[in-house]
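PROTEIN DESIGN WORKSHEET
SECTION A - STRUCTURE
LENGTH: 419
TOKENS:
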């Protein structure tokens, strides 16, 4: 494994993290944000603790989650200036914390519609930042956005993923231990179910869109499939090729840098695991047209996708969020309704099976976050600073809270192309 894009160690770096190092000004807006937060936070069942010292044990161990404001002035200033982007940046700057951030973020997610007073809700869109043109997933944009996240460092991902190096939701059973061994077993089960759904077996010509680090391609090749796997991440391609070669499967698996729009050929099956979230709504027609074009008549497509309720997706489709700015630029989580609309509008594909397992994603993220936290010193030794570490911790906790609250889900969706 190699490290290609290290983050310089140290405190908040104004050159690397300028929007975290700089606290925005604006007394009136900050005062309004302070009043709104003072009303909204207790109203949803979260307790506030303010000051440099940690919350007392009796507060931290209570039933209600705690929001600990280390620097309330900076916290409210960021909230006033950048909304939820500022909320995340404030955590990155160390201005707030919580004894149980997932419980606190879950509570916020469960009551997100109540955080802004009803008379002000129609005006929320006026204060939310809009997506910049640079967020579009053109061919150059998509490659840049994928590199931003997946080419950070294979070593970094190896610190918190299980031995399969699988970076998507596992599929647990009640018998799986909730540890690294159980996670690996649940990841293998998830991959096998996708391959089963796509009817991948001996002699299958399989296209994988979004390689990851090669686990699915290896498991498909072990079944006797001939696998073409495409990715936009050079780091993932290189490690996937190494893993394929180590398994003696190089004659059955090809891993290439290729945009899905440029893929060619005809395949019995196409599998794509948690890649559609990075496509972007503007390019969904291109993505589904590619699936339709690349799978033969009568062939199967198996997707694994994070999903959200259709109305929420429509309401948030143009928003520019903390997640876009720092973790996954250019993405949008689809609804199942949107997927159905895309299939009906321009393809011969139809959905034949669905399985939702959002709570398993919450458990997957919890295990990743625990491993990442335990590896803090090794993360630092790779050259990633404390601001990056807090950013990644917030990202994992934020996503876990989304699944625990039910705001988002994950599904395996099987499709078949008309013969």
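SECTION B - SEQUENCE
RESIDUE ASSIGNMENT:
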């Amino acid at each position: 494994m190699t490290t290609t894009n290290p983050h310089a160690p140290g405190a908040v770096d104004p050159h690397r993290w300028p929007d975290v190092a700089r606290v925005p000004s604006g007394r009136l807006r900050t005062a309004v944000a302070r009043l709104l937060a003072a009303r909204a936070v207790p109203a949803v069942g979260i307790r506030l603790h303010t000051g440099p010292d940690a919350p007392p044990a009796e507060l931290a161990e209570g039933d209600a989650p705690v929001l600990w404001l280390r620097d309330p002035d900076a916290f409210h200033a960021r909230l006033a200036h950048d909304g939820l982007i500022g909320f995340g940046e404030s955590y990155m700057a160390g201005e707030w914390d919580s004894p149980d951030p997932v419980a606190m973020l879950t509570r916020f997610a469960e009551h997100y519609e109540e955080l802004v007073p009803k008379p002000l809700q129609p005006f929320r869109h006026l204060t939310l930042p809009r997506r910049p043109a640079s967020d579009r997933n053109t061919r150059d944009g998509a490659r840049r956005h994928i590199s931003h996240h997946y080419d950070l460092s294979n070593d970094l991902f190896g610190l918190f993923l299980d031995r399969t190096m699988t970076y998507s939701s596992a599929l647990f059973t009640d018998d799986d231990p909730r540890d690294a061994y159980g996670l690996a077993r649940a990841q293998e089960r998830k991959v096998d179910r996708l391959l089963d759904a796509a009817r991948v077996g001996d002699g299958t010509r399989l296209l994988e869109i979004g390689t990851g680090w090669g686990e699915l391609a290896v498991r498909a090749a072990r079944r006797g499939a001939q696998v073409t796997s495409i990715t936009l991440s050079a780091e993932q391609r290189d490690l996937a090729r190494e893993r394929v070669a180590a398994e003696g499967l190089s004659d059955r698996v090809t891993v290439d840098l290729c945009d899905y729009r440029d893929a060619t050929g005809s395949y019995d099956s196409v599998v794509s695991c948690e890649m559609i979230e990075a496509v972007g709504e503007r390019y969904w027609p291109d993505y589904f047209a590619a699936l339709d074009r690349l799978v033969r008549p009568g062939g199967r497509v198996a997707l694994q996708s994070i999903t959200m309720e259709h109305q929420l997706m429509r309401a948030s489709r143009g928003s520019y969020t903390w997640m876009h700015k720092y973790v996954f630029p250019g993405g949008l989580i689809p609804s199942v309704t949107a997927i159905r609309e895309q299939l009906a509008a321009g393809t011969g594909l139809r959905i034949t099976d669905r399985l939702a397992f959002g709570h398993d994603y919450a458990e997957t993220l919890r295990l990743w976050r625990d491993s990442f936290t335990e590896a803090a010193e090794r993360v630092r030794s790779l050259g990633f600073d404390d601001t990056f570490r807090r950013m990644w911790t917030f990202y994992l906790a934020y996503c876990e809270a989304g699944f625990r609250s039910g705001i988002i889900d994950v599904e395996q969706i099987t499709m078949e192309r008309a013969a």
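SECTION C - NOTES
Residues 72-92 form the longest helix (21 residues).
DSSP finds 18 helices and ten strands in the chain.
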